[in-house]
Amino acid sequence: MQPTATVLVYSDDSNTREQVRLATGRRPATDVPQVEFIECATAAAVIKELDRGGIDVCVLDGEAAPAGGMGICRQIKDEIFNCPPVLLLIGRPQDAWLATWSRAEAAVTLPVDPVEFAAALAGLLRSKPALSA
Predict the structure, then answer these.
(1) Using CA atoms, how far apart are residues 133 and 14, in angstroms rounded to an integer?
(2) 111 φ, ψ to 5°?
(3) DSSP 3-state assignment of 108?
(4) Is the pLDDT of residue 131 over 60?
(5) Which residues are registered as beta bridge partners of 64?
(6) What single string gives the DSSP state of each residue in 31-99?
(7) Would you give the DSSP letter of residue 104?
(8) What is the pLDDT of residues 3-59, one digit of tens each?
(9) pLDDT value for 130
(10) Cβ proximity of 81 and 100 under 8 Å
(11) What's the gap between Cα 82 and its chain centre?
């Protein structure tokens, strides 16, 4: 059986979550596993899924409201043991310093550029030592 990677996608905007799914496709690169998505529209749902476990990478929308992905990222880095790597979606390149503050491992700008996004996600999946089977 082929291994799969579980990617949590958080955004209050269903169009943003769809952009992430479409940019990823079945797998973001040929040398990483196929991806399964867990979509969350609220901060509480993100925490619930992370507490449940099995998430390989989180994609968080820094422009989400009322809870932005940057604040959620910082919170989960403090509160979740062995927190998975985070790819942060930011509104503009100048916000990269906020992504660093939030402790995200990577950041890409909105709207999602499929090539840039897939490369960033694949990089995080490669850095993850053990993926779900």
Answers:
(1) 28
(2) -65, 160
(3) strand
(4) no
(5) none
(6) TS-EEEEEEESSHHHHHHHHHH----EEEEETT-SSS-HHHHHHHHHHHSTTPPPEEEEESSGGGHHHH
(7) -
(8) 899 999 999 999 999 999 999 999 999 999 999 999 999 999 999 999 999 999 999
(9) 46
(10) no
(11) 15
Token digits of residue 129: 């030592």
Number of residues written out for the chain: 133
Q: Which residue has the tokens 């910082």?
A: 74
Contacts of 40 (CB under 8 A, 6+ apart): 8, 9, 10, 46, 49
Residue position matching structure tokens 């992905």:
69
pLDDT digits 0-9 by tens, 71-128: 999 999 999 999 999 999 999 999 999 999 999 999 999 999 999 999 999 999 998 6
**Residue 25 per-residue DSSP state:** T
Show the tokens assigned to 44: 């509480």
Q: Within a 10 A sphere around the Cβ of 81, how many other Cβ atoms?
A: 7
Angle CA 127–90–83, to nearest 5:
35
Q: 2 pLDDT band (50/70/90 cuts)?
A: low
